[in-house]
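Morning, I've got a small favour to ask if you have a moment. I owe you a coffee for this, so here goes:

…
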Amino acid sequence: MPLKQQIVDQTRDAMKAKDSVRVGCLRLLSAAIKNKEIEKRGELDDAECARVLATLAKQRGESIEMYKRGARQDLVDKEEAELRIIQSFLPKPLSDEELATLVGEAVAETGASSPADMGKVMKALAQRTAGRVDGKKLSEAVKARLSEKQG
């Protein structure tokens, strides 16, 4: 079942269960996906939906850190609850070993040999890692692999 449909179905179930926190979060997810579709002027596939959800999850993580620094435990609890809901739709994150394997395969596929080829490798990995790894972590892994290959 497509990710978008899962969100719609769970929204309906949460409404029946009168779970207002879950309903609010799921509506937020639907709205974010809809906004991205309007921006793209077309339907999103599951990988694109996962990227939208990963962005929302990252935003929640950053908010949690800020609220902790501001000693706002009530807001920390709210954001953590939303983060758990968002993460339930995301694929299992890649382990460091899986990431290293994927980076190695992409480097071999693209014939990349130096940090200057980083763009080609990142493009090759974008679809395979959608929603499963943070872009910064992916970038660092590719950069490290290309640096060691060069040296």
In short: Residues 46-69 form the longest helix (24 residues). The mean pLDDT is 89. The radius of gyration is 18 Å.
